[in-house]
Structures are given as C-alpha cells and as structure tokens.
Design brief:
360 residues; mainly beta; 2 helices; globular
C-alpha cells in the first residue's frame, strides 16, 4: 500500500472511530530505559519528573520519589546519581526553571514531604547545573501546608503573565492549596498560601500549564478538573470523566507535552486499566489516544501512579522526547520508573516537536 493510501485509510478510520464514540487509536510502545529500583519494598516509588540540562541535554536528570525514603535522581540511562532527604518520604515531585535566587537564576526541584512534623510540607532544592546535584534551600526545613497536616501531591507553576512562581499542593480529602514561592534574602526559599480550592474527594495528581495559565487536577474517582492557575481565578470544570474513553479510576498522574502556539497534549494515568489517556492541550481537551505499553526487552508497566513527559531531546536513545511512568510491579525487583521514546507513542496520530521551551 502506498504512503498516500495509508494516510487516507488512517484518516478514514479515525473519523469512523470518532463517529462511533470509540478511541481513535492505541499506541503500544516498549520501554527503552528503566531506572534502578528504589531501595524500599512494597508501594514505594510514586512520581517522576525530568530536569533538562541547560547546555548538554544528555546530562539531564530523571527525578523519582520513594515515599518510604527520599528523593532519587537518575542519569538518562537509568543509573542512580544521588539520593537526598532520605527520611522525608517525598510523595510527588516537579521542576521549576529560572527562579531568581542570590542574584542569578536557578532551577528548582519541589516535592511534597510526608515526613514527621518538623520536615512535613513542601521542600525545595536547587539543581546545580555544574555538578548535577541537588541542594536543599527550603526556609525552615519545610514550607507548611494545610495547617501543618500531611500533603499528598504537588506540581509547579511559573506564570507567563506575572512571572511569579507557585506550587499547587493536594490533599487526600480533596483540599488544594496554592503557595507562592519567594526567596527570603538569606539564600533560602519560603512560601505563602495565596489560594485554597476544594473538590469532593481524594485528589493527588496535578499539572500546570505555564503558558496557557491553567491548572489540571486529578480527582481520583471522578475525573480531571481544569482551573485557571492564577490566584484570583474562579471555579473550575471537569474536562474528562471516569468512564469516558476508557478512563478508569483511580485517575493518578497528570503531565503535559508542550508544543508551539499553546498546543500539545494532556496525559493522564488511568490506573484501573494500566493505560494512559491522551487529550488535546488546547480548547476543550478533546480525547485523542490511548497509550497501552507492552513487553519488550524491558517488562510492561501496571497500576501506575505518577507520570512525566518532555518534548526535549535528551540521550541518543531518547532523542525525540521522553515519557516516564512509575511501575508498580517491576519484574526486576522493587518498584521503579520506565522511560519511553515519544516517537514510539506519537506515530501516526500525535505531533513530534523537539524544540525545547522549558527556559525563558
């Protein structure tokens, strides 16, 4: 069959699937890389993030939480580089770029720490581009949230409109706090609550769209909420419900694949059927694709909590973007994180855009 005939047939089938209310397509990628397992047994690994090195993409890092231990950093080949805060039990992690600190701009890792009270809350580390090491800069050891109660999820927001830096922190009871991060003047970073939200039940996963000014929240047994991300924003709305397009509870991690002109994809972990649902980033967040990984040289994944994605090239194996997921049942031992090449997911339905826009 010619390339033109294949394209026409793909478009016709896509239109038919839409008319019948069925998923347009399913991608079945095989993992290309996996990280070393976390040291703790059982339900330990939870959420990944990725930091892109400012000069050499091959020196980028995968960050992964061990909610029974500390925050781990991995090289792009999956080997472990560093463990920080080994007793703070971080649950979720995210990255902020270009934060002003001490007369220069730095990149930050932020995590929700579920440790005993003196270290409970949001923790912040500077990621040193020269050493690729994380250094704790949290004012007072932790930024308290929910009146000192235990946080659950976290995601970062750098407003394109105001230039300010925030984190959204979620709770098991459906509460959400938005905290603005600011340098203290002594080389540390503190935070002030600027907004509170509530949904009806447990919410953990979240992601913010810096350019679009939106904040997405996964209410685990209900679906995905979309809010304005500025502190003065009003009520949100549900853009994807459990039961639609094969989205099965719990709805866990959320992440954004960002392309030019505000386009790209919102991706959600559909934990109940071991898959990931892809929606358009813009407009009404229309459903477009299911990602259902399969076995290869590295085992399949299931019951995923956190996910992360980047369109930025990194290593030779991951030169067109990377999708990272937590694996609840790792064949090689304790839980770990699996890395997929974006092109194995994108063809033929999704965009591949390798222009890296994470820094201003």
């Amino acid at each position: 069959m010619s390339a033109l005939k294949r394209t026409v047939l793909t478009c016709w089938l896509g239109a038919l699937w839409i008319l019948e209310g069925k998923p347009e397509a399913t991608a079945r990628p095989e993992a290309r890389v996996q990280t070393q397992p976390v040291p703790h047994e059982g339900d330990a690994a939870d959420d990944p993030a990725i930091w892109i090195h400012p000069r050499d993409p091959s020196l980028s890092l995968v960050l992964g939480t061990d909610k029974r231990g500390g925050l781990h950093t991995y090289n792009m080949d999956g080997s472990e580089l560093q463990v920080v805060a080994p007793d703070t039990r971080p649950n979720n992690v995210d990255v902020l770029y270009d934060f002003p600190l001490g007369g220069k701009t730095v990149d930050l890792a932020v995590a929700s720490a579920q440790a005993p009270r003196e270290s409970r809350g949001v923790k912040v580390w500077v990621i040193d581009a020269a050493t690729r090491r994380l250094q704790d800069v949290t004012d007072g050891g932790a930024i308290p949230v929910f009146g000192g109660e235990t946080p659950y999820g976290v995601c970062a927001y750098h407003s394109a409109r105001t230039g300010r830096f925030h984190v959204f922190v979620t709770g098991r009871d459906g509460r959400v706090e938005q905290v603005e991060l600011k340098a203290t003047g002594t080389g540390s970073i503190g935070g002030t609550k600027v907004r509170a939200l509530t949904v009806g039940s447990t919410a953990e996963g979240c992601v913010a769209d810096n350019e679009g000014g939106f904040f997405y929240l996964a209410e685990e047994v209900v679906g995905i909420w979309k809010f304005g991300a500025e502190p003065e924003s009003g009520a949100g709305r549900i853009v994807a419900r459990v039961g639609e397009n094969g989205l099965v509870d719990d709805v866990e991690g959320l992440t954004l694949y960002e392309t030019a002109r505000g386009r790209g994809y919102l991706i959600a972990s559909s934990q109940g059927n071991d898959s990931y649902k892809v929606y358009e980033r813009e407009g009404e967040n229309r459903f477009v694709l299911t990602i259902d990984p399969t076995d290869g040289q590295i085992d399949d994944v299931d019951h995923t909590d956190g996910i992360a994605v980047t369109n930025c090239p990194t290593s030779r194996q991951l030169a067109k973007g990377t999708f990272i997921v937590q694996d609840d049942n790792n064949a090689g031992g304790n839980q770990n994180f699996k890395l997929y090449g974006w092109e194995d997911i994108a063809a033929p339905a999704l965009t591949i855009d390798t222009a890296c826009r994470n820094r201003t």
